Hints:
It holds the Pfam family PMD. The chain has 217 residues and is mainly alpha-helical.
Amino acid sequence: MAERWRPETHTFHLPEGEMTITLKDVAILTGMPISGDAVIGPQTKPEGGWGPLIRDRLGFDMPTTTPIQGRGHPPLNAGQVSVPWLVSHIQQEVVINDETPEEQVERYARIYLIGLVGGFLFPDKSNRWIQGIWLSLLIGDWDAIGEKSWGSAVLAGVYRELCTCSKVGAKQAGAAMFILQLWVWEHLPMFAPADPRPYRRNDDELNFLQNLPYGVK
């Protein structure tokens, strides 16, 4: 699909004509909002860089040096959070029950969201680093965060990455390419799995799926 992408028109050139991923596709496949405030990050770094903000909001004492004899990647590097370190730290620490303070629950929620946004919706090509800039978009009123136009921002990221990876010599692609995969399965069924539902769903599963995005089904 990348080889058939034309950066001039942001469309796939196919033998039958041109096609492209639309905002409506993103909304139906993922359930992400496509209206609301634009997802815009700060134009400048906060005083002291992203490191202090990450430490303050995530609540982790994150060293900036590699813990094991200089091997691997440090958890925090130039305002970026290490994905493997963050996942392992969450698995070791996060325990939520009825007695967990609300501030702690919100901190865990913020950790989950920065992983979701920075590592899944806007990943880099290595899928090892999350930009600290995303944390600045996840601060404030929780309802306001959910009402931003995340779908349009993610689609813009997919467009941009397709323009990059369609060039000669490109070997990798970042962005939320799962959207492209779901879109291809839906609109070009010859590329879809032969049977996406290899077993018969019971009534409980069907009722559960009714409220989920089409891409999950």
